[in-house]
Structures are given as structure tokens and as C-alpha cells.
């Protein structure tokens, strides 16, 4: 497919995200996502972050397989999670679950710095190449257990988690700055909820359930 074809499909994807946002007003308490988020979705080429054989489907509003039993998230969910995170240009963001780097690239458009953790080394390597090709020089990747976060660079203004634990990992809550926001899917596999977690200036935590979702499980394993 040619670049003009991808551009047309990307515009169609953006229109679908806008329409689904209107239908989700009761869940999101808003009928339109932040313009900065939509601009980032319009800027980052999703087809550059999927396996070659999946490129014709890159702008369909659905998850796509990326290998190793993992998927790239549905564009609408990427946009909603990014909007809920409320990233500011001065923010340092932690992402858990790099995949092939699409969500990382979206965050890189909005934040000062992005630190992202991927448990599968081969995916982390692919993400590094794809992000470099797109000029995302404010993203740093490490291979590790996402449940442990990245303590060397904590605390973080915002934390985005793209795989679902049953319970929100305490280490991630600890690594979130006072005044910060985390967006994370959590719960049993058949009852996951997308959650917006906020930590106030005194360190107290509140959570808000958005709607039911289905994500890959966040693996909490010891790495060599």
C-alpha cells in the first residue's frame, strides 16, 4: 500500500475514534478527546508499528497480533487511555508494556520524556528500531518486569500500563508522583476494568472505573 492510502485510512480511523467517543460520553464524561491527543494519533503512523503482514489492517479499529501472544491495542482504546492520562509537555511518563512501540510513540509526542518497560526482549528490540525510525529520541526502553516499574527514574508524573494485572502493583503506585495520574486495566481476565488512578498532593490515592476492557495479562515474573 502507498503512503496516500495509509493517510486516507488514518483519517478514517480518526473519524471512527471521534464517533466512538461521542457514544462513550456517559463513561468518559466528555464527547470529544483532547485535541493534542487526536493530533498525536494523526501524526504517528500506526502501520510503522505492526508486523509487515498486518500493515493493510493497521488503521482498522481493532487490536492486531504482534507475535509472542501479544497485541497492539485498538486505536480507540489507545486514544482514550492517552486522554485519561492527561500528559503535559513537561511530564516524565512511565509506560509498562512497550510492545512494538506504538503507544510509546504517541506518548513521545506529548511528554518531555518516556521510559518504557517490556518483558519480551525481542519486542523491546523491535520497538527500539521502530521508534528510532520515527525520530522518537525522547523514549528509553528497558527489558524487565513491568510490575516493578523503573525505580531508578522514579517518581513519574504519569504512568500508563498496557497489560492487565489482577491488582494494581504497589510498586507502580509508589513510583507515581503526588499529583500524578496512572491509567491501567486491572481485574480478572473476564472482568477487567480500565481504571484512572490519581494520587493527590498528600499521597492519597483515588480510583475511577471507566469501562470494561480485555487486555493481555501483566506478567509478574523474575527475570535473570
TrEMBL record:
Superkingdom of origin organism: Bacteria
Pfam families, alphabetized: PCMT (PF01135)
Chief place where the protein resides: cytoplasm
Protein keywords: Cytoplasm, Methyltransferase, S-adenosyl-L-methionine, Transferase
Known EC number: 2.1.1.77
Catalytic activity: [protein]-L-isoaspartate + S-adenosyl-L-methionine = [protein]-L-isoaspartate alpha-methyl ester + S-adenosyl-L-homocysteine
Any one GO BP annotation for this protein: methylation
Compartments where found: Cytoplasm
Role summary: Catalyzes the methyl esterification of L-isoaspartyl residues in peptides and proteins that result from spontaneous decomposition of normal L-aspartyl and L-asparaginyl residues. It plays a role in the repair and/or degradation of damaged proteins.
Protein name per UniProt: Protein-L-isoaspartate O-methyltransferase
Organism: Variovorax ureilyticus
Amino acid at each position: 500500500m502507498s503512503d496516500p492510502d495509509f493517510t486516507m485510512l488514518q483519517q478514517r480511523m480518526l473519524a471512527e475514534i471521534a464517533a466512538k467517543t461521542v457514544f462513550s460520553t456517559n463513561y468518559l464524561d466528555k464527547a470529544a478527546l483532547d485535541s493534542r491527543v487526536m493530533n498525536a494519533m494523526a501524526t504517528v503512523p500506526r502501520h510503522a508499528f505492526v508486523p509487515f503482514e498486518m500493515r493493510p489492517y493497521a488503521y482498522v479499529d481493532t487490536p492486531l497480533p504482534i507475535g509472542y501472544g501479544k497485541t497492539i491495542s485498538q486505536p480507540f482504546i489507545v486514544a482514550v487511555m492517552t486522554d485519561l492520562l492527561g500528559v503535559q509537555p513537561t511530564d516524565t511518563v512511565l509506560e509498562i508494556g512497550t510492545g512494538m512501540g506504538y503507544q510509546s510513540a504517541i506518548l513521545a509526542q506529548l511528554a518531555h520524556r518516556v521510559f518504557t518497560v517490556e518483558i519480551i526482549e525481542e519486542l523491546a528490540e523491535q520497538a527500539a528500531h521502530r521508534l528510532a525510525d520515527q525520530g522518537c529520541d525522547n523514549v528509553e526502553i528497558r527489558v524487565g518486569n513491568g510490575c516493578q516499574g523503573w525505580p531508578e527514574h522514579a517518581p513519574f508524573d504519569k504512568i500508563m500500563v498496557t497489560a492487565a494485572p489482577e491488582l494494581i502493583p504497589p510498586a507502580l503506585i509508589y513510583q507515581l508522583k503526588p499529583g500524578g495520574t496512572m491509567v491501567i486495566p486491572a481485574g480478572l481476565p473476564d472482568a477487567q476494568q480500565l481504571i484512572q488512578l490519581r494520587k493527590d498532593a498528600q499521597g492519597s490515592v483515588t480510583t475511577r472505573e471507566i469501562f470494561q476492557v480485555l487486555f493481555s495479562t501483566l506478567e509478574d515474573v523474575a527475570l535473570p
